[in-house]
Design goal:
It contains 19 helices and 16 strands. The chain has 506 residues and is an alpha/beta fold. The protein has 2 domains: 182 residues, Cobalamin-binding domain (Rossmann fold); 242 residues, TIM Barrel (Alpha-Beta Barrel). The strands form 3 sheets. A 7-stranded mixed β-sheet has the order 2-1-3-4-5-6-7, sandwiched between helices. It has a 7-stranded mixed β-sheet with strand order 8-9-12-13-14-15-16. A two-stranded antiparallel sheet has the order 10-11. Helix 12 links the parallel strand 13 and strand 14. Helix 17 runs antiparallel to helix 18, helix 17 runs parallel beside helix 19 and helix 18 crosses helix 19. It is globular.
């Protein structure tokens, strides 16, 4: 059977998706032919900007040379290229894997198919939590939806389609007939240790490179954990655990260290990785035995690696060990600086002192960190947002991300946003790098976006410059000119990219 995988994504979001690598390997092992259409390599797709370069422009990340990636950039028409591939390859099935913020890109690509197209199935977190909306937004170009994890559902669907068998009883499959959805039961969470090693051979060469600390690295993803033990209100991982709470299954799972080792060797030997990023919502959700086993195992490689974790998981011993075996950089989710707001709205029970003290442990070990922040949460005010700025001024990070809040389906804050009338019930979440889609009368979209682009200036520059910075929030030609001047000054005088910098007035 011929299968065409469709991966809709924006240029500059260059993280390799482990799911596509895994589906490719599983389907090939079942004897199918597999091709991939990945929109990431198309610059300017639907007027989008370069996400990684945009972060660099806004001082959220270090500047870097992207000439290697640009060698593989496609400037042709993505829709025409997709149609050409479909005509020449003649797939028996098109399978789209998409996050909610990229779903509309996939639908736009599919909308150019005529009525003689092959059947199309779409899967991901978005169809899992909003199948009716996923169907409504599909423009009659999607015939089936996968809910839950698809590692068992997709190959079973392919086998039955190939044999001409009935597909109506497959766990995790939603079939669509005459515009109506029939939803089967969820598949059980998969065992992370029984599947073949991922196959990334279908990706363009440029997709193996990712900017990190001012340079491009041939950085491969390694999945260690699925799910998360924490219950943040803006994340869908807790909801994925909740849908299994009345069953004997748990969505939160850890891959055996032995299997992690095999995947590391595989990516080194087959894809020439020079570094890794470990794919886990909270890397340090391991217990002590698992953590020590990982460090002992990884000491054989000692290649640079990136992780993300929570401030609460930091101990000096753990980060000394991680540094010994190659830790390059850590991303910490802080998200908001007001303790009460963070506890009541974001459902995060951690103090500012814990965040500051624990992140200081990491930076004192000369380990570079980046901090993720979100602006424009439902009910947030400008004053509350400045609490986030204030907290960041006490953290010695050389990467400060300020994203707009994105109300993904399957999260408690999406429900709150709809209840308060801040977001249309039938709207799709947009990319976190885009301006906010939340409409609040007391903290407008322009207010949020203006503050977002000046976030790093407020954090890094002296407090007596804040009145000047406020003028740069204005999204006007005059405000743009002030912002550019301040940004250049901040880059040259205050972005030292070391962990010992201090503010002039602190």
């Amino acid at each position: 059977m011929k299968i065409l995988l469709l991966y809709p994504n924006l240029y500059g979001i260059n993280t390799l998706p482990p799911a596509i690598g895994l589906f490719t390997a599983i389907l090939k092992n079942d004897g199918h032919q597999v091709r991939l259409f990945d929109t990431t390599v198309y610059e300017g797709l639907y007027n989008s900007s370069d996400a990684d370069k945009q972060k660099s422009e806004n001082l959220n990340a270090r500047p870097y040379d992207d000439s290697l990636i640009r060698q593989y950039t496609k400037n042709s028409d993505a829709e025409n290229d997709f149609l050409s591939l479909v005509r020449n390859y003649k797939p028996d099935l098109i399978a789209m894997s998409a996050t909610e913020d990229m779903y509309s890109i996939g639908v736009n690509i599919l909308s150019h198919l005529d009525n003689h197209r092959p059947p199309v199935v779409a899967g991901g977190v978005f169809p899992t939590f909003a199948p009716e909306l996923a169907l409504k937004m599909s423009n009659n170009k999607i015939d089936m939806l996968l809910i839950g994890e698809g590692e068992n559902t997709l190959p079973e669907l392919c086998r039955k389609l190939e044999r001409g068998d009935d597909i109506s009883t497959i766990d995790g499959l939603c079939t669509i007939k005459e515009g109506k959805l029939t939803q089967n039961c969820l598949p059980k969470p998969v065992d992370l240790n029984i599947y073949p090693l991922p196959d990334y051979s279908l990706f363009e060469e440029s997709r193996f490179y990712r900017p990190m600390q001012g340079k491009l690295r041939r950085m491969l993803p390694i999945t260690t954990i699925r799910g998360c033990p924490f219950t943040c209100g803006y994340c869908n991982s807790p909801s994925q655990r909740d849908i299994y709470k009345n069953s004997d299954f748990d969505f939160f799972r850890k891959k055996d260290i032995e299997h992690v080792y095999k995947e590391l060797k595989h990516c080194l030997q087959n894809y020439r990785a020079d570094s890794f990023y470990f794919w886990a919502d909270t890397f340090l959700a391991w217990n002590e035995y698992e953590f020590e086993s990982f460090c002992d195992m990884y000491s054989e490689f000692k290649l640079p690696f990136w992780i993300q974790t929570r401030p609460e998981t930091v101990t000096e011993h753990r980060f000394k060990r991680l540094k010994e075996v190659g830790l390059l950089r850590v991303a910490f989710g802080v998200e908001h600086g007001n303790e009460e707001f963070r506890r009541k709205v974001l459902l995060r029970k951690v103090s500012n002192n814990t965040i500051i003290d624990n992140l200081n442990i990491v930076t004192s070990l000369k380990i570079p960190i980046s901090v993720n922040n979100i602006l424009g949460f439902p009910t947030e005010t400008r004053e509350l947002a400045f609490d986030t700025i204030e907290l960041n001024r006490h953290i010695r990070s050389d990467g400060i991300n300020a994203y707009s809040y994105t109300p993904f389906h399957g999260t408690p804050l999406r429900i709150l946003s709809e209840q308060l009338g801040y977001v249309n019930k039938n709207s799709l979440a947009t990319s976190i790098t885009n301006p906010t889609m939340i409409s609040m009368p007391h903290f407008t979209k322009k207010d949020i976006e203006g503050l977002r682009r000046c976030f790093v200036l407020y954090v890094k520059m002296p407090r007596h410059r804040w009145k000047e910075i406020e003028k740069a929030e204005s999204l006007t030609p005059e405000g743009d000119a002030i912002w550019k001047e301040l940004k250049d000054e901040c880059l040259s005088k205050y972005m030292h990219y070391d962990d010992n910098e201090k503010h002039d007035d602190d």
